[in-house]
Amino acid sequence: MKLSDLYWHRVTPLHLLLWPLSLLLNLFFKIRKLCYWLDFFPLVKLPVPVIVVDSITIDDGGKTPLVLWLVEMLKGRGLSPGIVTQGDPDRPGQPEALTKLSEHARVRSKALLLGKRLEHTCPVWAGNNPADVAQALLQAHPDCNIIICTFGLQYPRLERDFEIAVADFNEASFGNGLLLPAGPLRAGLKRLHSVDAVVINSPRKLRFDTSDWAPTYHMKLVGNMVYNLSSPDGRHPVSDLKDRSVQAFATYGNTQWLANQLQQNGLKGKMQSVTDDHRFVEQDFSAIEAEVIIMLEEEAIQCQKFQKDRIWALPVEAWIDGEIQARVLNMLREKLADSDVTNEMACSN
């Protein structure tokens, strides 16, 4: 178990010292939200509907595969979505468009993955303020008629029409149940009462009472296909690699999931874990003798300039409860009954 997991799972004297800071942070968020609600601060209302997809914990919870599924679903309904995602908080700057050629040093791996996967599907813009990024995206792409924001539950300045909270809600995700900085939660569990939907990425029975939560839906993440970095357009079943020597790389948070996927597809090999903020360099692979190096796609894209022949990327796909599709579309129809967006949805039925 990594050091941060040990920290999130315990309640020590250090946590007791940090607990008042957690209360102050939570109070700050509530006061800020109240100030926007009372119109002390101006809200940003976009001319198109906004869907926020976010997690209440520091754990991603499968947010990126859910966003990719959502884009495909909306495109299938004749809509033109645009993606607003978070840039690197350590490198604040102006909103910027992302593509597969964007520099990894400037944005996070998950944001870069969205830019790569959706380059020919819909615009993806990154920045540190969702309202500013969304406005910049719409100015550059006025044909977009819906915005999907991959962060925003803690940013009330941007008005939204639909909120989806996503997490795996396992023990590692909630940890000691405390708010930052004493625990892994960025918002209390009561925040799940006020969102429009909760998507749960967990096959196990939850140890939480969900009766007061927003409607819940289940999601399963799968990875059965891979591609070589030297030929990214080709897709192959993971099982095709089972007769070759394999070394897998993953960040701590993804290690167990990747190991399970490889085992289910009959692959055996070594698994090496790195820290969640690790930046891959060519020297990471210099001592590896395996024929095949398998990495999750979001991590493999850091390695596009080296080791292309040996590195295989495994994309993650989301299998999602179909009922949430109807809920999202119905909500859009109710809130935008007289808009052109609803007309486009109707024409695509």
UniProtKB/TrEMBL annotation:
Enzyme Commission identifier(s): 2.7.1.130
Source organism per UniProt: Nitrosomonas marina
Pathway: Glycolipid biosynthesis; lipid IV(A) biosynthesis; lipid IV(A) from (3R)-3-hydroxytetradecanoyl-[acyl-carrier-protein] and UDP-N-acetyl-alpha-D-glucosamine: step 6/6
A single Gene Ontology CC term: plasma membrane
Sequence similarity: Belongs to the LpxK family.
Protein name (Swiss-Prot/TrEMBL): Tetraacyldisaccharide 4'-kinase
GO biological process, one term: lipopolysaccharide core region biosynthetic process
Alphabetic keyword roster: ATP-binding, Kinase, Lipid A biosynthesis, Lipid biosynthesis, Lipid metabolism, Nucleotide-binding, Transferase
MF terms in GO: ATP binding; lipid-A 4'-kinase activity
Reaction equations catalysed: a lipid A disaccharide + ATP = a lipid IVA + ADP + H(+)
Described purpose of this protein according to its UniProt entry: Transfers the gamma-phosphate of ATP to the 4'-position of a tetraacyldisaccharide 1-phosphate intermediate (termed DS-1-P) to form tetraacyldisaccharide 1,4'-bis-phosphate (lipid IVA).
InterPro entries per UniProt: LpxK
Region forming the signal peptide: none
Membrane spanning residue stretches: none
Annotated gene: lpxK
Xref: Pfam families: LpxK (PF02606)
Top-level taxonomic group: Bacteria
